[in-house]
Amino acid sequence: MADLSAFSLEGRVALVTGGGRGIGLSFAKALAKAGAALVINDFRADTADEACHAVEAMGGKARPAVFDVTDFDRLEAHVDGIARDLGRLDILVNNAGILIRAPIEDHGMPDFTRVIDTNLNAVYAVSRACARPMKAQGGGRIINVGSVMSISSRPGIISYVAAKHGVLGLTRGLAAELGPYNITVNAIGPGYILTEMNRHVLGTPFEQAVIDRTPMARWASPEELTGTAVFLASDAAGFVTGQLLMVDGGMTSNSILVESENLGASS
Ligand code: NDP
Hints:
Layout: E1 13-16, H1 22-33, E2 37-42, H2 45-57, E3 61-66, H3 75-86, E4 91-94, H4 109-137, E5 140-145, H5 158-178, E6 183-190, H6 205-212, H7 226-233, E7 244-247, H8 259-262
Parallel strand pairs: 1-2, 1-4, 2-3, 4-5, 5-6, 6-7
Helix pairs in contact: 1-7, 3-4, 4-5
The chain binds NADPH dihydro-nicotinamide-adenine-dinucleotide phosphate.
Residues 17-18, 20-24, 41-44, 47, 68-70, 95-98, 118, 145, 147, 190, 192-193, 195-198 line the site of NADPH dihydro-nicotinamide-adenine-dinucleotide phosphate.
């Protein structure tokens, strides 16, 4: 039988940004189940505390870290405090993200900048802060959360598309920079996942359009991303770096045309 101990995260310390709910909370629970001690970051103390209780209720270890990932001046102090208190920092999951939907004429610089700050600049800033303790301890794992929008686009979410494309670039750039220090940097590219971020599209034509464009013909749950995160965080992925691993039900491997649109087309 195969030795599965390479997938264990026993003895590791993991920081998940925006881990209070949604996809981030699922990542936190899965990493804890695999053996890691969790530090759950979120904006709000109550959200972070609740997430920690949820991890502890399933037998895991977790502590909250309440800060805004766009508070760039104070990130290093937050991260250094975590590494000092827990003795190490092995895994960073850059999950915190926001989405502002608006056509270009209604999407001014404050909103554009907010999305880029949260979804892209913070990925760099938190990674940079974590790289220091990871280098000092001889290695680490950085996992960024991309999107199908890291390699495609659609109207009405231009800042999100720009940020998520940037996350792919950052993943490759950081992988090149940090590889010599035994720090791997990869991204997960989720397809459409039911969370607060997109719950409002339930029952609209968009919900069905996602299904039509996904070979697996459904939306996914946050839990369906977690096996990939555990793998990328583990020793089993020790030579995997600079990659965007799509977990999208085949959406981005698919033609953007659905069958009904394709009828009569010659190719
Ligand atoms: P949610 O909105 O459900 O959760 C995002 C979490 O991030 C919230 O807990 C939020 O806090 C927190 N957060 C937002 N901004 C900050 C900040 N500046 N500092 C600290 N925490 C912050 O989103 P999802 O779980 O759906 O998304 C998680 C990630 O997955 C994002 O990067 C998103 O882009 C990506 N993704 C999501 C997909 C989907 O279909 N849902 C598809 C592809 C990618 P608060 O609760 O206080 O707002």
